[in-house]
Amino acid sequence: MAHGSFGTAINCMDGRTQLPVNEYLRNRYNLDFIDTVTEPGPVKILAENQAGVESIRQRVKISVEGHGSKLIAIIAHYDCAGNPVSKEIQLQQLDAAIKIVRSWNYEVEYIGLWVDDKWQVEQIQ
After folding, report:
1. Which runs of E-coded beta strand occur in 78-120?
2. Domains, the chain, ranges and CATH?
3. pLDDT (tens digit per residue) in 5-46
């Protein structure tokens, strides 16, 4: 097991979201490290059970089982090139994505985050 406290972020590959999400999680949850699983539009991939779900699942497993992550955050964001739909649709996908990830049955906290047009992080769930 790794030393330090870990959280897991299932985040978009969009580099604009990485720093604000990691800072938010470190500060809000007093974490030392954030394992980041990135995909273009991960909430869509998870919500619609698209190709890539198993890859996400395996990387989350490494974070939780190998690093002892106690938190899984799933992130949607403004201006997503991988999932160019409205905020409302992304938030519906985020809700579905959280349900999918919860079904993996890790004993961790699950949260959903929205990153807005000013790159500020808002906790949705």
Report:
1. 109-115
2. 6-123 (3.40.1050.10)
3. 999 999 999 999 999 999 999 999 999 999 999 999 999 999
